[in-house]
Design a protein that fits this description.
This protein has helices spanning 6-15, 18-25, 29-43, 59-86, 99-116, 129-137, 208-219, 233-241, 289-307, and strands spanning 48-49, 56-57, 92-97, 121-126, 143-147, 155-170, 187-188, 199-202, 226-229, 246-250, 263-267, 274-282. It is of the alpha/beta class and 310 residues long. Helix 2 packs across helix 3.
Length: 310
């Protein structure tokens, strides 16, 4: 629907006062009050609870505010996209991803994306997982591929898959003699207590994956004695490949893990522990056709992991 002077209502909401909004807009208070009354009459709802000082949005008012903000964003995005088209500028896609996930995901997806958008410019914003949500909320990136963030107040997401979490170690470790647990067909790790005296590489405690693992350890009364903390999964994997530590790895990284012939792989927990992985972007944000294509290719890529579970 067409809303005349939407900035009037948004200014009232921001100032939480009709009189202050009128001053900011260089309008008279009676005129702005009439505007609001006419707007509510046309919509058939009450947008502001006038019994509160400062003014408070009703449920209908919150919905209307969200609509106006989204409409404003879409209008600006349309103008920008039309200008780019007129100037024949190539589409630019800003993607947030952790360094490790970027290294295992992009080599498979980027070639397919380039076939559909040969002139597109892809800009990677590589950052630790906790920072990716901030980049999306701040409109720095179009979307990010990450484990599901805790704070979704400004974000929305599309769940891609629930990745199984694997315990990875060197196949020559005495612990694994007589145990056949391959990358293609991992079996449950027999006893997490066996890790208590081993070196175990973990991500920082406040990261989602680590919280899930420590919760699992707590439930099984497992007390790790030798923990090496890193923010890079590649470090963990390389240490495991050199028989220097055990590491935990999301299943989607298996195919590009170096030194696969040296490693054995186990699921952990019963049922196997999983971690949600999603495409995350700002609420009410606009996804360009190029961004939508990249997201769809990402979902298609990860779907193969679900199909191979038996």
């Amino acid at each position: 629907m067409f809303v005349k002077n939407p900035e009037y209502f948004l200014t009232i909401v921001k100032e939480r006062s009709i009189s202050r909004a009128a001053e900011r807009l260089y309008l008279s208070q009676p005129y702005l009050s009439q505007y609001l009354a006419k707007l509510e009459h046309n919509l058939g709802v009450v947008l502001l609870d006038r019994s509160h000082t400062p003014l408070k949005l009703t449920a209908a008012g919150e919905l209307f505010q969200a609509y106006l903000e989204r409409q404003d964003f879409l209008d600006r995005q349309l103008v920008s996209d039309l200008r780019d088209l007129q100037d024949r500028q190539r589409p630019v896609l800003h993607i947030g991803v952790s360094p490790w996930r970027g290294s295992i995901l992009l080599p498979d997806i980027l070639p397919q994306f380039v076939e559909e958008y040969p002139d597109a410019q892809v800009i990677l914003h590589e950052a630790p997982v906790p920072e990716l949500g901030e980049l999306a909320a701040g409109n720095v990136i179009d979307f990010c591929i990450m484990q599901l963030p805790d704070d979704l107040s400004e974000l929305t997401y599309e769940l891609v898959m629930r990745e199984r979490i694997f315990l990875v170690g060197h196949r020559d470790h005495p612990m694994f003699q007589g145990m056949d647990s391959t990358i293609e067909h991992p079996i449950p790790f027999p006893d997490l207590h066996w890790l208590e005296r081993e070196r175990v590489v973990m991500l920082p405690e406040d990261w989602r994956l680590s919280r899930l693992l420590y919760n699992l350890f707590s439930a099984h009364h497992v007390d790790l004695q030798n923990v090496l903390v890193t923010t890079n999964n590649a470090t963990a994997i390389n240490l495991a490949a050199e028989q220097m530590a055990f590491a935990f790895l999301q299943e989607s990284g298996i195919s590009r893990t170096p030194c696969l012939d040296r490693l054995v792989c186990f699921t952990v927990g019963d049922p196997p522990l999983t971690c949600p992985m999603a495409v995350v972007y700002k609420k009410k944000g606009f996804l360009s056709p190029a961004a939508r294509t990249f997201i769809d290719l990402t979902k298609e890529y990860y779907s193969r992991f679900d199909q191979t579970r038996g």
